[in-house]
Amino acid sequence: MSNQKLLVVGTMAFDEIITPSETSGKVLGGAATYIGLAAAYAQAETGIVSVVGNDFTEEHLQLLRDRNIDLSGVEQVADQPSFYWKGKYHSNMNSRDTLDTQLNVLANFSPKVPTYFKDARVVMLGNLDPNVQQQVLDQLTPNPQRVVLLDTMNFWMDSQLEALLRVIKQVDVITINDEEAIQLSGKNNLVMAAKAIHAMGPSFVIIKKGEHGALLFHSEGPFYAPALPLDQVIDPTGAGDSFAGGLSGYLTKQNAVTAKEIKQGILYGTAAASICVGGMGTKGLEKADGQVFAHQLQKLEQLRTIV
Amino acid sequence: MSNQKLLVVGTMAFDEIITPSETSGKVLGGAATYIGLAAAYAQAETGIVSVVGNDFTEEHLQLLRDRNIDLSGVEQVADQPSFYWKGKYHSNMNSRDTLDTQLNVLANFSPKVPTYFKDARVVMLGNLDPNVQQQVLDQLTPNPQRVVLLDTMNFWMDSQLEALLRVIKQVDVITINDEEAIQLSGKNNLVMAAKAIHAMGPSFVIIKKGEHGALLFHSEGPFYAPALPLDQVIDPTGAGDSFAGGLSGYLTKQNAVTAKEIKQGILYGTAAASICVGGMGTKGLEKADGQVFAHQLQKLEQLRTIV
After folding, report:
1. A254 is in which domain, residue-wise?
2. What is the pLDDT of residue A213?
3. In chain A, what residues touch B299 (CB-CB under 8 Å)?
4. Which of A86, A153, B91, B130 sits a CA distance of 20 to 30 A from B221?
């Protein structure tokens, strides 16, 4: 049996989130933070590679360590603040405007993968500059059972397409939202888009459709995992990262990764995302323990079941 | 065992449909036409109550009779043309503009339910003036096992809300699209909207989400039936009616109608809708036989299945 290590690269950040009913103030955020918190539901042995600034407190770090997340790959820069993002959601919560982005420590981030995680079974490349994602891949030692997952967004298609396509070629699983799949592929239909992205490298193309769930395309035909209908969405920030975290955490604990495990992992991701959106920032994930997570998984099963 | 008769009320019409790639010319259309064609996959004994004009040919009627659809409740008016609708789809096929509507024979339509269908086990009230839907309900004879389904749209919410609410109170199952559920309920969230509509009368609230599938809300919690991802949508006209037809046709053949049958019926409706959008107007349904329908059902099962 291969090791059960999950290596995550992504931002650790501060966010300020404005929803129609609430303003968060400066709160913990970042793709790697959400991924790590969500992967913890699967009790994966997770290590994060990231960078934080002088405003990141011991309390923030301890929150992650408490969930068995190794932070030896997180560099702390003494003379700069952490990456900062401020955004405002529209009334239907399905779209948002970025009000401010400050790269800060991220501007010169050079990821260093701890030796212990170089042979990680599962590698989750969280949404980040594809050149940084590539630097992480370059530091890995071979593991024949490795599974590499990638999450990305339109910003990198606009600014770093070549580097992004190079990374995409090397990954097994890509998670991407519907609009971005259309943009990346140049197709105007999700089925055609998924086929085109499949041809770019990944065996498994997962299209995230927000409240409508997620679609998996692979060589054996599509699979559709609906999202839980929620009577209240507090804050969608981090939902996609939580999805990636639940999925990659689940895969880390499996002996084999075939379509079956990917599908089950998508349910894990969906459950994590449904928890994430139930609180401001990371609060939803922070509050919900394994029992709550199991309950969400059960509700997802009921949602899909006829009898 | 109760009878297995399905009574359908709705329009029979001529449509002119403009999609980004094709213009249909004047083709067979109308809610009852689509419902009848789709219900035929379940081999339900269907009777339609409707009205047509002097432009409706024997060929059009025979097309329906060939599928075992009883047209004795279809009045033919000698001195007027049939109901006519012309619409143009936008490039993404998810929205459309109505370019022309001519009520013609529909303006003075007074439905007459044939005696044989007055005790029908299942009654499908297709999208139509709720006052006409009510006139059909008023002519029925009691059947303790009766199931009444209603499909409606925003036009009637705007123009005939009181009559619509009265009909809604009397039905067991309502099918309504997501935007219209929001409008009808005054809520801004689908879960809350479904609860509010449930409180208006129907035990089963089915929210149609187009390419994203359909959600069932009832007393035991939600069920989500994804739609088949399609690599090509030729014409979405009639998809909602086909959904209603597949569902009501299936229910007509069941001994009991509980949540289980409704869920299975939603899969029938989803399969019929996926066939409908594969051709201009009714061409998709006309071409696809029972074997094609069974294949669509099988693909829907695979779409929902992990192993």
Report:
1. 11-304
2. 97
3. 221
4. B130
* Cβ contacts of B41 within 8 Å, gap of 6 or more: B246, B249, B268, B271, B272, B290, B293
Residues from chain B contacting residue A206 (CB–CB below 8 Å): none
A255 domain residue, yes or no: yes
DSSP strand pairing (A204-208 vs A214-217): antiparallel
Of B91, B195, B304, the CB nearest to A224: B304
In a domain, A197, yes or no: yes
Judge: A231–B192 Cβ closer than 8 Å, yes or no.
yes
Q: Is the pLDDT of residue A31 over 90?
A: yes
Residue B149: pLDDT band (50, 70, 90) is very high
- Residues B216, B262 contacting (CB under 8 angstroms): yes
Query: Percent of chain A beyond pLDDT 70?
Result: 100
Residue A109 inside a domain? The answer is yes
Q: Residues A54, A151: contact at Cβ < 8 Å?
A: no
Nearest residue, CB atoms, A191 vs list B194, B215, B230: B230
Q: Which residues of A touch B264 (CB under 8 A)?
A: 306
- Per residue in B75-93, pLDDT (tens digit) is 999 999 999 999 999 988 8
Q: How far apart are CA A25 and CA A43, in angstroms?
A: 30
Judge whether residue B163 has pLDDT over 90. yes
Q: Any long-range contacts for A216-222 (C-beta under 8 Å, 24+ apart)?
A: A216/A259, A216/A262, A216/A263, A216/A266, A217/A191, A217/B229, A218/A259, A218/A262, A220/A259, A221/B299, A221/B302, A221/B303, A222/A191, A222/A194, A222/B228, A222/B229, A222/B303
- Check A306 against B212: CB less than 8 A apart: no
Interface of A with B (CB under 8 A): 91-92, 188-192, 194, 209, 212-213, 215, 217, 221-224, 226, 228-233, 260, 263-264, 299, 302-307
Reported as a pLDDT band with limits 50, 70 and 90, residue A88 is very high
The structure tokens 């990456």 sit at A83
Number of domains in chain A: 1
CATH number of the domain enclosing A173: 3.40.1190.20
For residues B118 and B6, is the Cβ–Cβ distance under 8 A? no
How close B264 gets to chain A, by Cα (Å)? 7
